[in-house]
Design goal:
The complex is a heterodimer of chains A (about 120) and B (about 300).
Chain A (H helix, E strand, L loop, with lengths): L2 H7 L3 E4 L11 E4 L3 H7 L4 E5 L4 H10 L3 E4 L7 H10 L2 E4 L4 H10 L3 E2 L4
Parallel strand pairs in A: 2-3, 2-6, 3-4, 4-5
Antiparallel strand pairs in A: 1-5
Chain B lengths: L2 H4 L13 H11 L3 E5 L5 E6 H10 L6 H4 L7 E2 L4 H10 L4 E5 L5 E6 H12 L6 H9 L21 E5 L9 H12 L4 H22 L3 E7 L3 E8 L7 H5 L8 H4 L8 H8 L2 E7 L3 E9 L7
Helix pairs in contact in B: 8-9, 9-12
The chains are: A alpha/beta (about 120), B alpha+beta (about 300).
The complex binds adenosine-5'-triphosphate and magnesium ion.
């Protein structure tokens, strides 16, 4: 599924990397608020959903090669986090939707979990 | 495991016509405590130890030749011996080192208790050294100078990559690992290996920042077959490494958890990403994590 479609499904606003959202496509989604968990399950071809807004989230994504991060249940994201995303070339988007709803909607669209995939 | 995998192959030896004074210099420069004596065909004919040198200094015969003062009935091990036999040797004799000889009594190596221990550590992949033995290793100057995994002397200044973890801001945690990833890719290391290395290094680096209460360093050596990473700190250390390794165990305070750390998965992640790993720690002195990643292979599990 195209990243642009994924983002509109969860009503997310793109903060960094707008120009890439029509090119990138993903099959897998992972949702986590734990860095070590992200590191443990991540694969490059997935979108990360998280409730964290720290620059750390972006760095963690970068280390495992995740190209897109969606921050849930937030209005805004600290500027350091945006800068980090720009520096790492990671697409960053934010939505007010809860984690539960965002996951439910994407699951409905046949996006797959990374576990056992 | 055979003794040839454990022993030190580049053994330094001395000829019988040398003086004890010369031996003293070799011991001092090479920081070793004994030298096998060999004849012109490299046959083992004796051994001189630091005790012999001390006696020579006291007795005033330091300029005497090695031949006159060496221990002639030296106990050596055959190069066909197994690890088990080597351990039995150390139990039977109280010597700290044994020369290793081939079928013709020619010197081919030397083995110390330390070599045996390091070999066992490397073999097990991950070990926590207890009490006496642990203290022995940690207190020796070798602790920070030798690789726990390979037993080799580490020339840290010759590392291909070095990063000083000299910050305490959790928001910066992972900078070193991220730099290392870029560096590895720029050196032509394949994506997957670079990814495994950076994930594991990221975990180790964040642990230094979050838990050690001190600063640390990342060293990386690129070898033809593998990538070797060592992350060390001089912080408070880990009391029970076995417990810390358990998935889910964490002592992270709440504010750290709010930042997404403290799942107690870091060490388990490192173990999973690497092909070999050793964690060694002494309370109050710090933690050393060494990891080896075979190149061009997928992560375990
Ligand atoms: N460098 C270190 N210095 C002191 N203690 C450490 C160090 N590294 C790990 N520890 C101890 O080991 C525990 C487990 O570490 P581990 O990395 O597995 O989990 P964590 O850091 O608590 O959580 P996570 O890595 O999932 O964010 C830590 O909570 C801490 O008590
Ligand atoms: Mg950790």
């Amino acid at each position: 599924m195209k990243l642009s479609e994924i983002l509109s499904e969860v009503k997310a606003k793109v903060l960094v990397g707008e120009e890439k959202i029509d090119q990138l496509e993903f099959e897998y989604i992972a949702a986590s608020d734990l860095m070590s968990e992200v590191l443990a399950i991540a694969r490059p071809s997935m979108v990360l959903l998280t409730g964290l807004t720290t620059p750390q989230v972006v760095r963690t994504a970068e280390v495992v090669g995740i190209q897109a991060v969606v921050i849930v249940r937030k209005d805004s994201v600290p500027s350091e986090t945006l800068e980090m995303a720009r520096a790492c070339g990671v697409v960053l988007a934010v939505t007010k939707m809860t984690m539960f709803e965002a996951c439910g909607r994407l699951y409905n669209k046949n996006l797959k979990p990374v576990w056992g995939a | 495991m055979s003794i040839t995998e454990i022993m030190n192959h580049s053994v330094i030896s001395v000829r019988p016509d040398r003086t004890l004074r010369q031996v003293k210099e070799i011991l001092r420069i090479k920081r070793i405590s004994g030298l096998p004596v060999v004849d012109s065909s490299r046959k083992l004919i004796g051994i001189v130890s630091i005790e012999d040198i001390i006696k020579a200094l006291e007795g005033g015969y330091i300029d005497d030749t090695v031949e006159n003062r060496m221990t002639k009935d030296v106990v050596s091990i055959e190069s066909t011996a197994t690890l088990k036999e080597v351990i039995e040797f150390f139990e039977k004799w109280s010597y700290g080192r044994f020369p290793v000889v081939d079928g013709e009594k020619r010197l081919v190596g030397i083995v110390t208790k330390n070599d045996v221990m390091m070999a066992l550590l490397a073999k097990l992949g991950l070990v926590y050294l207890h009490d006496e033995r642990r203290r022995e290793v940690l207190d020796s100057p070798e602790y920070f100078a030798r690789s726990l995994l390979t037993g080799e002397r580490l020339d840290k200044s010759g590392a291909d990559f070095y990063f000083s973890i000299d910050y305490f801001d959790i928001n910066l945690a992972g900078v070193g690992a991220s730099k290392l990833r870029q560096f590895l890719l720029s050196k032509g290391v394949d994506e997957k290996t670079a990814r495994r290395v950076s994930i594991a290094t990221y975990e180790a680096e964040t642990n230094v920042v979050i838990h050690s209460g001190s600063t640390g360093a990342i060293y990386c050596f690129i070898k033809p077959e593998s990538i070797f990473v060592r992350v060390e700190d001089t912080g408070k250390g880990i009391e029970d490494v076995e417990l810390a390794m358990r998935e889910g165990y964490s002592t992270a305070p709440d504010y750290v958890r709010e930042l997404g750390f403290g799942a107690g998965m870091g060490l388990a992640n490192m173990k999973r990403c690497s092909d070999n790993m050793i964690v060694m720690s002494k309370v109050g002195a710090g933690v050393v994590v060494e990891m080896e990643f075979l190149r061009g292979r997928e992560a375990k599990g």
